[in-house]
Amino acid sequence: MSPLTLIIAIVGGAAGLLSTLFLVISLPATILWKLYRKVRFGIPVTK
């Protein structure tokens, strides 16, 4: 395998890993934040 192919594979894998981690962390955090605002302030979840 050539060095260029290896670099492209590493960069592509890192991009996929980072985007997956972002989704895994941000979606539950957003849901918990909306539930907290609903309980604490009475703000609708859809707002």
Separation of the first and last Cα atoms = 51 Å
For the biggest sheet, the summary is: none
How many helices? The count is: 1
Query: What's the mean pLDDT score?
Result: 95
Strand % is under 5%
**Any low-confidence stretches, pLDDT <50, length ≥5?**
none
Structural class: mainly alpha
Please tell me how large the radius of gyration is: 19 Å
Total beta strands: 0
CA-based shape: rod-shaped
Classify the helix fraction into a percent range: over 70%
Order of helices and strands, N to C? Answer: H
What's a quick, concise take on this entry?
This protein is mainly alpha-helical.
Structure report:
The chain is mainly α and 47 residues long. The protein is 83% helix and 0% strand. It has one helix at 3-41. The relative contact order is 0.08. The mean pLDDT is 95.
